[in-house]
């Protein structure tokens, strides 16, 4: 019996040690479980924050896409307006060239007309001088005819 008590005592000690070890393992496992649960809560919170950030980024991306589309439309509109302005500029340049040619022709005609006017004015002046000279001669001839007529009547 003493052997049984010794054996039981040894067994009890062994079981007590195993129990202490299992309890220590359990305590460590519970601590790890608590740490794991805390980590899970922390990660869930981080996941929620990341999810919110993702939603915010998606909204920002949508707005950026809308702005990009608006910018593309503006670029397209401005490109079309630029093409129209270039075509209009070409048309205006053609008109300017045409009007410049017409101006040069008009200036040449005006110059020719001025020279013609000067020539005609000289001719008018010469003819007026001729008229004055002829009137003067006519007057002299009239006076001579009157004198001759007077002489004939006095005879």
TrEMBL record:
<comment type="similarity">
    <text>Belongs to the tropomyosin family.</text>
</comment>
<dbReference type="Pfam" id="PF00261">
    <property type="entry name" value="Tropomyosin"/>
</dbReference>
<dbReference type="InterPro" id="IPR000533">
    <property type="entry name" value="Tropomyosin"/>
</dbReference>
<feature type="coiled-coil region">
    <location>
        <begin position="12"/>
        <end position="144"/>
    </location>
</feature>
<protein>
    <submittedName>
        <fullName>CSON013655 protein</fullName>
    </submittedName>
</protein>
<keyword id="KW-0175">Coiled coil</keyword>
